[in-house]
Amino acid sequence: MTPHHNLIDGQWTPGLSYAPNTNPSDLSDVIGEYAQGGASDVNTAVAAAAAAFPAWSTSGIQARSDALDKIGTEILARKADLGELLAREEGKTLPEAIGEVGRAGQIFKFFAGECLRLSGETVPSVRPGIGVEITREPIGVVGLITPWNFPIAIPAWKIAPALAFGNCVVLKPADLVPGSAWALADIIHRSGIPAGVFNLVMGPGRVIGEALVNHPDVAAISFTGSVGVGRGIAEACVKHGKKVQLEMGGKNPQIVLDDADLNQAVELSAQSGFYSTGQRCTASSRLIVTDQIYPAFIEALQARMACIKVGDARAAGTDMGPVVSQAQLEQDLSYVEIAKAEGAVLAAGGARVACHTGSGKDGYYLAPTLFVDTEAGMRINREEVFGPVVSVIRVKNYEQALAVSNDTPFGLSAGIATTSLKYATHFKRHSQAGMVMVNLPTAGVDYHVPFGGRKGSSYGPREQGRYAQEFYTTVKTAYTLA
Fold it and tell me: In degrees, to the nearest 5, what angle opens at C-alpha 359 toward C-alphas 358 and 361?
């Protein structure tokens, strides 16, 4: 099996060791062997990025735009094979995987344009005869640490703006999904950007991530992952004076009011809770349903869940793929037991299932799981499970629903299903979340607008769209005597 090396200073560099990348739909299928780097690889990659930064940061914006456009073009042209790889290593269904690859290509295309749109200001000084220019400049070497649930889209939405605005990059992808990151690195490598501008260092987070965060020549860290790791990164970055951007957990509420369209509410709840196997930071695992619609909603949601086919991510007819790993499956099942112990009523699922195709493949398959008659204070409603496990809280009215939805340490995404303009408008203003969805799933966002949350979900400037410049550039104010 061909080993996949790290990319450092424009060269494919052997790792200290290699780890297998295993298909969660079929544990007998090893996708490849991927490099495990060490702190010395991080040091070499950062040195290469720092050496490349002066020329890249002052290079012509057309050259940067052309490189990003070329990357986006190849990604879009290869949606099918890259989507196949993504579904194979992460476990989301093939249509979802192909859609994610398409989004990655669109992100690079968007930021190819942003290279040409970066603007500044010229303003008069309060002192006569003096002019003031306000401009944005790249910040330097940026360390990017990405998660396993979106193995090509999230690296893309960090790499593309970093390069567009003239920074140099060291990417550390998640251990579970190195294949998509390696394929993306290969495309970037062949785009013609200078050696050292982009570097890929794969390996364990406790080694590679820590070395990146603590390296004195890394100017900024952008991280997407768990709350605990994110908080540790924030502390280290503040200590070292680095810029930091964090996207962490969510416990996203989906309100269903009595006046909601029942079929629409059920469908968006099913999509929010179970598609991508519930492994999205914007997934809604907390459904808040008002009294009158509650019985009909539960019955209809159970019927909808019974139609969800769980199986091999690449198989035709699969609606929900496997959980990504044994550790994640154990975490999901542990929360099932926690919910039962706390008195929640298990209405559907809650156990491992066989692949729907009857292939006999051994994978991390978990039935879509629903708990009803839960209380807002239960752990199942307070902590992020990150799997296809959804709980329902019954409330009296909109006012109580709003209070329960905001009663969380997180604040990433929130949704409401209603036909009332009054309640929809009020919720958009008073929901304590960074993103609000009206009659739409909580999961599913555009690439050209800001992404991020509040409270424990996010820290630092927003990602994506033109708001990405807030993190990947620094502002300079220059005075000139006329």
Answer: 115
Q: What percentage of the chain's residues is helix, strand, coil (to nearest 5)?
A: 40, 25, 35
Asked if 172 and 203 count as a contact pair (C-beta separation under 8 A), the reply is yes
Question: Do residues 160 and 197 touch, judged by C-beta distance below 8 A?
Answer: no
CA distance 226 to 216: 24
Range 465-474 average pLDDT? 96
Phi/psi at 4 (nearest 5 deg)? -105, 115
d(CA 12, CA 23): 24
Flag whether pLDDT at 357 surpasses 70. Answer: no
Q: Rounded to an integer, what distance in angstroms lies between the CA atom of residue 464 and that of residue 480?
A: 34
Cα–Cα distances in Å, from 83 out to 87, 102, 190? 6, 9, 20
Q: Strands (DSSP E) along 98-181, which ranges?
A: 121-124, 130-138, 141-145, 168-172
User: Is residue 35 a contact partner of residue 228, using CB atoms and an 8 Å limit?
Assistant: no
The answer to whether residue 170 scores a pLDDT higher than 70 is yes
| Residues with a known catalytic role | 247, 281
